[in-house]
Structures are given as structure tokens and as C-alpha cells.
Specification:
single chain, alpha/beta, five-stranded parallel beta sheet, 14% strand, globular
Length: 185
């Protein structure tokens, strides 16, 4: 950061790739679950600290509900996204990991969310994403559903679960949403 790297760059170039590598090492048995949890907690603390530098006035008139997909426990991507949206003038309700679908959809409806953003790292959680998106579609005024995370692979993976949009990274999501949504009334 002292060398000029912005917060979104730190997320995109340092923390994100580090956590992907940690996950790879855990999957191959090179590190234990305890080491993976330690790395995640350190990264989460850094994201929280950096997020404080990002806070901006909620000036867009837009509200995003950001959560992990059902049963997903890896919350760092959603945490990064929430901070970056706040820096872009969004009001953000960050809900974290393993939220039941009904509660997610009910809160988004109660708060008249413009966007529900779901972060998913593990492919076996994609059926839960499909269930969540189907529940969102039942609302009278459904918000746009943005998805992101390693589980999707690409935009086609996001389309297969019924998402309106896919962000290849948390850093790219604010601009993508700016293009997808008209200015708030």
C-alpha cells in the first residue's frame, strides 16, 4: 500500500491470489485445515482494516445485499465485494456465510434491494445458488442477481444457475453494476 497499490489492487493482486493458493495447498494436503483457517482469519482482518479506508458516503441511491451462496463458508470474496461497493457509493448489507435462502430473499425484499450478490467458491454449492435465484425470481420486484467466485468459472457458469450477471472479480463488480443498472431515481 505504501508503494501505491490501491485497496482494490490489494484485493485483486494479493489477497485473492493468496487465498486461491491457500485453498490449493489445503486440497492437495500440503497444509492443514488449521493453517487454512488461520490464513482466512488473517485475510479477513486485513479486508476489514482496508475496508475502513474505502468507506464513502452512500451516494448512488443503490442498495446491495451481499452474501455467500447457501452453505458456502468462504466469505472473503463477499467481504471484499461489500467494501468495494461501499467505496463506489452503494449502501451494502453484508450478510456473510451460510445464510438460509428464505432469510436472504426476505431481507432483500424488505429492504427493496437493487442487487443481491452471491459469492461462491465451491462448485458443489451451485445447486443452492439455483434455489436462491429461483426464490428471488418469485418476488414482485426481483433485484438483479450478481454472482462471482471460483465456482462459476466464467459467464456461462453464471448463466447456467440463472444469474443476471457475473463478475470475474470483486474489483470489476462495481463498474459492471454501474453499466447494468440505470441511475437510481
Amino acid at each position: 500500500m505504501r508503494a501505491g497499490l490501491e485497496v482494490d489492487g490489494a484485493y485483486e493482486e494479493v489477497l485473492g491470489p493468496a487465498m486461491v493458493e491457500i485453498g490449493r495447498r489445503w486440497e492437495t494436503g500440503e497444509i492443514s485445515v488449521a493453517h487454512e483457517h488461520l490464513a482466512a482469519e488473517v485475510s479477513g482482518s486485513l479486508i476489514s482494516e482496508l475496508g475502513g479506508r474505502l468507506k464513502a458516503e452512500a451516494a448512488t441511491g443503490r442498495l446491495a445485499v451481499v452474501a455467500c451462496s447457501p452453505e458456502e463458508r468462504h466469505s472473503l470474496g463477499g467481504q471484499m465485494l461489500g467494501g468495494l461497493l461501499e467505496a463506489s457509493g452503494w449502501e451494502v448489507l453484508y450478510l456473510g456465510a451460510t445464510l438460509p435462502v428464505g432469510d436472504l430473499v426476505s431481507l432483500a425484499d424488505d429492504e427493496a434491494a437493487d442487487v443481491i450478490a452471491l459469492s461462491t467458491t465451491m462448485p458443489h454449492h451451485l445447486p443452492g445458488v439455483e434455489t436462491a435465484i429461483a426464490a428471488v425470481r418469485e418476488l414482485d420486484e426481483p433485484p438483479l442477481v450478481l454472482v462471482g467466485g471460483q465456482a462459476y468459472g466464467d459467464e456461462d457458469g453464471a448463466r447456467r444457475v440463472g444469474a443476471d450477471a457475473w463478475a470475474p472479480s470483486a474489483a470489476e463488480a462495481p463498474e459492471l453494476l454501474r453499466r447494468k443498472l440505470p441511475p437510481a431515481a
